[in-house]
Amino acid sequence: MSEEFYTVAQAAERLTLHPKTVLRLIREGRLKGARIGKSYRIPRSHLDTFAGAGQAPQQPITARVSCVVDVPDVSPELSHRLTVTIQAMLLSHERSPDRIQFNSVYDAELQHLKLIVIGSVSDTSELLRSLDRQLEAVR
């Protein structure tokens, strides 16, 4: 099966570029073309590759949330209980493929707990709602 070739003018029209721009791209090696006599011919496969035709569609952009939850006036026992409860929730529930990253830091001197959560919007919001319910029940 023979491959289809385009002239510089046809390639320029297909790429919506000026013919001189197509010639420059060929001379720079960014677009592959064969010189035949005094003109160039560009194979369709090379033109499609350059134009991005046939590429796999890009994955949709997935938003991720990063948040730090500050919880003041927390005893070491409550800090431990909240941390373990969140970790258990993360292990027990099926979540989206983008796993939630979770870390906690407790300052015993100030009795201050920081919870760091990074994950998908839906999973993070679900986790924060659950944390809010737990804090309301304690206080």
Task: Explain what the structure shows.
It contains five helices and six strands; from the N terminus they run βααββαβαββα. It has 139 residues and is of the alpha+beta class. It has helices spanning 8-15, 19-28, 44-51, 76-92, 121-138, and strands at 5-7, 34-36, 39-43, 64-71, 101-107, 112-120. It is rod-shaped.
Summarize the structure.
By secondary structure, the chain is of the alpha+beta class. Helices cover 44% and strands 25% of the residues.
Helical proportion, percent range: 40-55%
> Per DSSP, what share of the residues sits in E-state strands of 2 or more residues?
25-35%
Please count the beta strands (DSSP E, at least 2 residues each).
Answer: 6
Note the gap between the termini. Answer: 77 Å
Shape: rod-shaped
Distinctive features:
139 residues, three-stranded antiparallel sheet, alpha+beta, single chain, 44% helix
Element layout with pairings:
Blueprint: E1 5-7, H1 8-15, H2 19-28, E2 34-36, E3 39-43, H3 44-51, E4 64-71, H4 76-92, E5 101-107, E6 112-120, H5 121-138
Antiparallel strand pairs: 1-3, 2-3, 4-6, 5-6
